[in-house]
Amino acid sequence: MVNQTISNPSALCTENNAVIGNYTVKTASTPDYSILNASIQETFTAIDRFEWQAVREILQMRDQELYLEAGYTDFKEYCQRELYAWGGYRRINQLLGAKKVIDTVGELGEHIKNERQARPLLRLVKEPEKLKEAVAIALQENPSPSESDFAAAAQKVVPQLPRKKIQEPLVPKIQEPMVPEFPTVKVTSPTHHRHGESGTIEADPPNHWQQIVTFADGSKELVNNADLDAPSVPFSTERTYPKEYAEAIAQIREQHQQELERLEQELRIGLQSQATARAEEQVQQELASLQQLFQQQKQQNIELQQRLDEMEALRQLEYDNQQLKQRIQELENAVQERPTQEWGNTLTKQAAKALNKEVKRSLDKTIDLRSLAQEPPKENAQECLRLMGIALGNLASAMNNTQALQAAALLLGSEPTPIAIAYRAEQLQLLPQAVSEIRAVLASPACSWCDYLSVAQEYEVIKADYWAELTTEEIELITALEKTESSKITEPMVPHETPAESGSSDGEVIGLGSIVAHADIYCALYNARGEVIEDIGDEVWVAWQHWRDRGKKTDRYFKDELRLL
């Protein structure tokens, strides 16, 4: 036997080897194990090295499209035609995938010796960090990892569900169906023009979803499998692939399924995050609305507390008024009973006669005071008459004299009752202060109608009294200020309106937002305008226009005290 060798010709044999030129003549011999084993490993190492060299050349051929010079339309056609003996396009794809794995892991790629070791790592190439982690795990467990080591490391990093294998019987039972030479079929689709007719299949189908059917009249038609009913004829519904393509398709489907599961998990996490963010936003909105509602409720509670305080103050005033009325009644009863009381030991009868005589003389003089009310003195007459009226009122209350009471009422301008006279006396005590404050306001160079009203309103009940005390020049000044203010108000004056007509017009009722004025035509603020800012039943709060520049801008009135404008 004659063999031509490339490597050291003496490496394979230990004895009985004759070398003649470039030929080795072998005789019967036994090779050494260590030498033969080292030669085998060197050979496979050289194969792997040449394989990576081939990959680099293939990349150059693909990237530079040199195959076009040979007339090939694409890289796949070049591989199928020129490299079919080495696995064709499928094998080239495996080598290119291994090259991609090595390039992705970087420095760790030097531990991947061939394409078989890189094959289980190919599914991690889209996740470089996990790919590097798998290679590191394999190197940690075995410094010279094999294909199984890389596969186990990849499984640890990204677990892969095992494929379900169908256990086939060792000796499958083959049962041939009783099929005639030409299968008979029947058109069952109601929409087909040969519905109900039968025919035979005498030729191979042109594709996977149609059959060539020969009918009784001898005509042949192409009919869809879905329109036929032939249980004995196995219509192929799926496309068949070669074994190597079927494996590749199954691997792609598995990767696609894993990718779908990963995307589904990411989508679930994203939806949960979005739902959490939306829930937090809704909670924030609800908290904000609750806080706003709390502030509104707090403000309402404050307003209710203020109203309760006002009602409590009114109740206290009512209680005080009842106490005062009761005290007044007791005093009146005491005055009426006083003449009939016995003086006891305080005075003698002679002293009582003298006192009665002096009281009678005073009463006689008091009766003549009515003429003074009709013709008052020339100097400070009103003040004198008021002082006399107050004195007579006190005397009438002390002595229970009706004539003195009538004289006091005539001088003070009130009803002839003790309560009316006492109330009138209290009013007249404010007269000097009122005249002084009004004259101080009128004496100011920048005096306006609003300034005068701010003081005059406080003494509205004694307007006629302080008006009589003012001089002619002061009255003319007040009249001029009123005319100036009236010219600013566009609403015409209604001097002859009666109180019965106030509070509403044409069926309208005073309410929130109504423009109102005083209903009393004798009120100093009759022409002043205001707006209702709060309606509390029978009463309202009014904001007056002439009080805009003052600290106090509103006041409280009964509705019948106002009129609509």
Task: Please tell me about this protein's structure.
- It is a single chain.
- By secondary structure, the protein is of the alpha+beta class.
- The chain has helices at 33-63, 75-82, 88-105, 115-118, 128-141, 147-157, 243-337, 349-367, 370-374, 381-399, 402-412, 418-429, 431-442, 449-456, 463-469, 472-488, and strands at 2-3, 17-20, 23-26, 184-187, 198-201, 210-215, 220-224, 228-229, 515-518, 530-535, 539-544, 554-558, 562-564.
- Mean pLDDT is 76; it is low at 1-28, 340-347, 365-369 and 490-505.
Give a short summary of the structure.
The chain has 16 helices and 13 strands. The protein is α+β, with helices and mostly antiparallel strands and 565 residues long.
Q: Rg, please?
A: 62 Å
Question: DSSP helix count?
Answer: 16
Average pLDDT figure: 76
Please tell me what the overall shape is.
Answer: elongated
Widest beta sheet: strand line-up: 7-6-5-4-8
Oligomer: single chain
N- to C-terminal separation?
137 Å
Order of helices and strands: EEEHHHHHHEEEEEHHHHHHHHHHEEEEE
Q: Residue ranges: pLDDT <50 for 5 or more in a row?
A: 1-28, 340-347, 365-369, 490-505
Roughly what percent helix?
40-55%
Structural class computed from helices and strand pairing = alpha+beta
Largest sheet: 5 strands, antiparallel
| Number of DSSP-assigned strands | 13
Assess the beta-strand content as a share of residues: 5-15%
